[in-house]
Amino acid sequence: MSVLETLTAPETMAPTLTGDELRRMNAYWRACNYLCAGMLYLRANPLLREPLKVEHIKNRLLGHWGSDPGQSFTWVHLNRLIKKYDLNLIYVSGPGHGAPATLSNSYMEGVYSEVYPDKSCDEAGMQKFFKQFSFPGGIGSHCTPETPGSIHEGGELGYSLSHGFGAAFDNPDLIVTVVVGDGEAETGPLATSWHANKFLNPIHDGAVLPVLHLNGYKIANPTILARITPEELDQLFKGYGWKPYVVEGDDPTLMHERMATVLEQCVLEIRAIQRQARETGSFERPRWPMVILRTPKGWTGPKEVDGHKVEGFWRAHQIPILDPQTSPKHLAQLEAWMRSYKPEELFDEEGTLRTELQEMAPQGARRITANPHANGGLLRKPLEMPEFEDYAVPVEKPGDFEVSSTDVLGHFLRDVMRKNMTNFRVFGPDETASNKLTAIYEASKKTWMAKELPEDLDGSELSVDGRVMEMLSEHTLEGWFEGYVLTGRHGFFSSYEAFVHIIDSMFNQHAKWLEKSKLELRWRAPISSINLLITSLVWRQDHNGFTHQDPGFLDVVTNKSPEVTRIYLPPDANCLLSVADHCLRSTNYVNVIVADKAPHLQYLDMDAAVKHCTKGIGIWGWASNDDRLEPDVVMACAGDIPTSESLAAVAILRERIPELKIRFVNVVDLFRLMPESEHPHGLSEREFDSLFTKDKPVIFNFHAYASLIHKLTYKRTNHDNFHVRGYKEKGNINTPLELAILNQVDRFNLAIDVIDRVPSLQMKGAHTKEWLKDQIIESVNYAHENGIDKPEIRNWKWPL
């Protein structure tokens, strides 16, 4: 008999559950559903010990009911299997607006009261538990960081499955059950993440058990997967490489039996796959099991309200009974619905869950919401780090030779991986080699469980044991990375600059999670930082053209909390090593590192680089000639390519106008520009003025959009004299210098800017200015004629 036939004919099967198990599991589920409804509606009378009155109802009804019963139903059955097989299991709620399901189970497990003692397991605690939900001064309506057991808020849909896989990597004993909402399943990130099963190694990874929850509707529309034929649905997931099991129905008694049978089968299959692989040391790519759970939206809720269908329809998505405050009919219907769960049978006189139901939950750290993997900082071990100074580029004279900074970084990351082969991974969307990080492959190859061809042996660097995660989906990779660090491990992500925007909103959501966790939740232990290397930069995308030129991710980052975001623009390889070492050791940040992959001039020896990066900003004395006096102009820069163009401009000016006093300031830590009152890395007014003066012109050559520097410095004393140059959305297939000229970040335009801004040069600099204009014309013409920059540009070195 096929699986589908088995599931639709449970009367032919030997029962999985005893009669007492079925009774108690259904009672436990009723209690969950009662608590879910109470969170949506009640601020008093939590156990309906008196008739329901308007004053017991919240003034604003906020939250979501639709997915709660299906999620709680799944949870009850997971509890049974955790106890039976001593499973190490966490739960990811894809439809995070179904948070009442997670919260109710946490409360019933006793975990919520342990974390928040004022929400005690009695009537008074239950009243507070209900009132706080979606309430000012309380908690949000999703699986926020305040939710014990959560590693995924689920506010922005699409990332649950990738988070689940990230949690499973290198956790061989862990099962991650991911409930995927059928609305969520329509998002691009979720649709792509079904392919993550091609990257899961049954020997050293855990397992992911997806439960696709088909309740049929989104906010006000049907869902696609619920409206295709069963055959098409089955073929879809088999095509993804899964082994789908279907559990369908609305009769609780039958559904409990079906779900118990299917989930137990899934657990046994997972264990069999892992046992075979671990005992033999080899495996064919397995077809991991998954569950398709089809239940009514708002199951067990009101069938109809005011003559309109609710249960099994989109009207069950949020608040099913809309107006109990002013409608006596709605109030009566709400009371009847909540009493249908028979709370007096579920909770004792004190308001505590009855003992026989408490016994349904696992104990201690096996409780889903107490599992330490969902508070990954508890399990986090610091990386064993090589000495980054050992990878130093020898620099005897600043700006005398070129090196690819990311190539140097790759050798450092290789040895970080060698020392941390069970808790460190590198992520990149088919760009690790392109970004000059290929040395990493000497430590570990790319993870690959799918088919291999003979030609793959010739440089493809594929391995079932690989620790470099490459898939052409920034969403999936970022989701893996987040799930990996949220469960206590470490990682590093590299991306082309223009396309890191694909994960803008994922960064936003993770930064919000970190902010809450770090500032408000002492019980959440610090986790490893998200480390993002932004490379293949705008200024060297002259070969790919306009579409690949967008440095705006930095603007996105600066909008988030200063407590959790950092931006570094190391100007050379030694600075990049220092910054990377710092970031890999840090916790509870998103660290953004901007460094190009192409060969560039090297300026600082390792000792100077460490000092410069520790300060985050500083004067380069060897590039300045103000002799510790007040300068005529400050040349400032942030970013490796803007730094080289600024230095070239300084060299021109010092040669042609030697009396001009120039101070050269380089910025590594972008947030040093902010006031200390606005950012913990910000400079004091005195420190800032000592670098940039109070009244002299500042020509600031910036890697990204100029407006960002103005945003960071607008409160500074000398802001009116800041003249910032950055990317202006001018570009095509250009030479490097031509692209810089188009955006006026080149050496010639910078030098002209100095002449225009320094009053004493208005007359004496006229001839130099004309020469600079000629150089611009000649350089562009040469590029258009020859397709490359002039030799003196390509081969330029710091001459002083």
Automatic annotation (TrEMBL):
Q: Which UniProt keywords apply?
A: Lyase, Thiamine pyrophosphate
Q: Which cofactor does it need?
A: thiamine diphosphate
Q: Which residues form the Xylulose 5-phosphate/Fructose 6-phosphate phosphoketolase N-terminal domain?
A: 18-378
Matching entries from CDD domains are given as: TPP_PK
Superkingdom of source: Bacteria
Alphabetized InterPro entries for the sequence: Phosphoketolase, THDP-binding, Transketo_C/PFOR_II, Xul5P/Fru6P_PKetolase, Xul5P/Fru6P_PKetolase_C, Xul5P/Fru6P_PKetolase_CS, Xul5P/Fru6P_PKetolase_N, Xul5P/Fru6P_PKetolase_ThDP_BS
Q: Which GO terms describe its biological process?
A: carbohydrate metabolic process
UniProt EC number: 4.1.2.-
Top-level EC class, please?
A: lyase
Where is each Xylulose 5-phosphate/Fructose 6-phosphate phosphoketolase C-terminal domain found?
597-798
PROSITE patterns from the entry? PHOSPHOKETOLASE_1 (PS60002), PHOSPHOKETOLASE_2 (PS60003)
Q: Which family is annotated?
A: Belongs to the XFP family.
* Name of this chain's protein: Probable phosphoketolase
Organism for this UniProt entry: Granulicella arctica
